[in-house]
Amino acid sequence: MCVSIPTKIESVFAGPIPTAKLAGMERPYSLIYHPGAQVGDWVLGQNGFVIEVLDEESAIASLEAFRELGYR
Amino acid sequence: MRLDVDQLVEGVGARIIVSPRGARFDLSDFPRIDASLAGRPVSEVPKLVERICGACPAAHHLAGVAALEMLAGLTVPQDAARARRLLHYGSVAVTNATTLLNTDIEAAMALRRFGLAAQAAAGSPGHFPITAAPGGVAVGVDRVKAQEALGLAKDAQEAAVRLFSESLDDKWQYDPFTGCDFALVDADGFLDPLGSRLRARSQAGQLLAEIERDFWAQAVVETDPGSPSPRPRLAKYGRQGHYRVGPIAQARVGIYRTPRAAELQEQWLKERSSAGAARALAVLHAVEAAVLILKRMPDPVPSNQEIEYPSGIGVGWIDGARGLLVHQYEVAGGKVESAQILTPTAQNEYWLAQMLTNVAACEGLENTLRFEEAIRAADPCLPCAQAAPGEMGLEIYQCA
Questions:
Q1: Cβ separation of A25 and B10 shorter than 8 Å?
Q2: Predicted ipTM?
Q3: What residues form DSSP beta bridges with B244?
Q4: Do A27 and B10 count as a contact with CB atoms less than 8 A apart?
Q5: Which of B52-56, B115-119, B288-292, B345-349 has the lowest mean pLDDT?
Q6: d(CA B222, CA B338)
Q7: Domain formed by A7-68, architecture
Q8: Each residue of B4-33: pLDDT tens digit?
Q9: CB contact under 8 A, B36 and A69
Q10: Residue A66 touches chain B, beta carbons under 8 Å
């Protein structure tokens, strides 16, 4: 099944539509949905777009769910 | 099961396997989690699954809670049911907005703004929903957000109508689908994403079955049980019982109840139009149906009662943004003995394979844009499905 795993913003690049570098990702991610997202924010990325900014508690809860099911 | 989380953050590219038997889309990198749910307290399963599949958390939230309710024999008060509907309709707008980002950014933004406000009005302001609890709701509604959503509804509805008009003339000639279409309907036979009956209709328009949730396990079987590509089918029709789910199936199975969506659906049927226009219909229906709730907001009373789950089987389903999602839990002593989480992506794999096989036969393997169109029509819940034309990163493997 499809999965959506939280990751962190490592750097933000300004522009008409700002983009971000996400931890472990090569491609840039558009911040058009979340132009105020900052370095260190937990996010969900999909197809080159940051679709959600998560608070740390929520991100950790998601990562814990993955661990519980045996994802390392 | 042992998988590397880092590989899955953005998903892998799209792989098509071509053999003498035909072409198919490779889902092997996205294994089922069903077996990993065994032994867990059943009450925790919906929350766990919605966290894993973060792309459609509202659909998993609602299907999972419905499965618990069937297990415990709980009924849902009308106001709570309406709050859940509002959450669902908002989530349809939000999920489809993500799909549209590469094609119509203004429509995407209008739908997302409306959908987020509708979800917040239903009591779920964050990405992971908290509205439903077994037997009712866990939280109250937000009337301020309801007014905000109503203020955004006109733009969202116009965006959906525009998307429909722009894609009405698209014709897709590589869909030889021979199976049937599945969609949920209400007691009157209208399309209903939270409906009580699952209707199956053949490509010739014949009504093949209407299934209640209690009979899901007997009526639908997996050809390859537990596989990422399980090829489920209507049991009594054998190999002819394969089916597809999602906006095209919905538009062919029943009639939308809201006026504008029903009007445009007539056009869609007359024109034999595309997956994109069918998706726009589903979004338009969601916006219209949400507005009806927002204008007369429910007032559900939150409750978080302790529930003991008896041994037995619970099935919950919902026609989500990509089509039918089913959660089935077989429980003993409050713990899961076996589970089935059947996503639209897994259910549509057979349909997608037929389209890919037809493209390969008609166009050869070089015209990758045609393969991309097939994948876009089936809309698997993977990043590649939303990539711009030519950017899906398709890899085609030939094997003997």
A1: yes
A2: 0.83
A3: B181
A4: yes
A5: B52-56
A6: 14
A7: Roll (2.30)
A8: 555 555 555 689 999 999 999 998 877 788
A9: yes
A10: yes
